[in-house]
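Posted in: Protein Modeling Q&A

I'm a second-year student putting together a small comparison for a lab meeting, and my supervisor asked me to include a predicted structure for ATP-dependent sacrificial sulfur transferase LarE. I've never done this before, so apologies if this is the wrong subforum. The sequence is pasted below exactly as I got it from our records. If anyone can share the structure token output, I'd also love a short note on what stands out.
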Amino acid sequence: MENILKDKINNLEKLIENTGKIAVAFSGGIDSTFLLFMSKKVLGNKNVIAITGNSFAIPEKELSFCKERAKELEIKHIVVRTSEFLEESYIKNDRMRCYFCKISLFKTITAYIPKTYGAAVGTNADDALRVNDRPDMLAEKEFDILSPLKEAYFCKSDIRQASKFFGIDIWDKPQTTCLATRIPFGNIITHDKIKMIAASEEILAENGFKEAKVRHYGKLAKIELPKEHAALLVNSGSIGSLIKDIKHTGFKYVAIDLEGYTI
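Accepted answer (user: helix_wrangler)
Welcome! Here is the predicted structure, written out as tokens:
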């Protein structure tokens, strides 16, 4: 391990230690998983809480992972239902969508966290460089949410490298986003749309395309995958049955983006 990364780890441990007790907003991604692991390492499992927002826009497999990982780490895990789908500001789906989602999340989790615990998220240094297109970070400031990874200058590659060093098995887990991001801005978010997206992505995952995203364009489902996987899907012997199954979720048309997806 490089000395620079060792220094970052030392700084992170000091930041976590200074909290005394910490509640990690645990989404199941590599960032929050690493933060949760390091929090237990520094403070012990009795002084750490994992808290997960159970949103309709979060894939069920991610929630299951959170429950399993918290159990493995022997950390108290709180799962709370979030209420962003009750907020007009969220479901109208403008470019501040992520901000309103985080406002709902932080309102909920801070109500459940004991006052002696500091609430923390897995925001990293790379995220901080994208503040202009990350309105959710405004919500972090409004609720005084801690960002130890960002403060210790951990970028995504640092997190992956450190996670691999500490034996965290998902160190190379692909970055994921919530299902609401599959709906273009300006198109309202509904439970039915989310269900169609979730079911379609599950169909693809069950057939080996675990990184596939399904964009909701009304009657059209647009499948996006890493570019190198798009050709595999097109030439798959099961492409016909896959399209048929996806149509059964409620879509009338199915298209495949051959250029590959963007997060």
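A couple of things worth pointing out for your meeting: The beta strands are 22-25, 48-54, 76-81, 118-120, 213-217, 220-224, 253-257. The chain has a mean pLDDT of 94.
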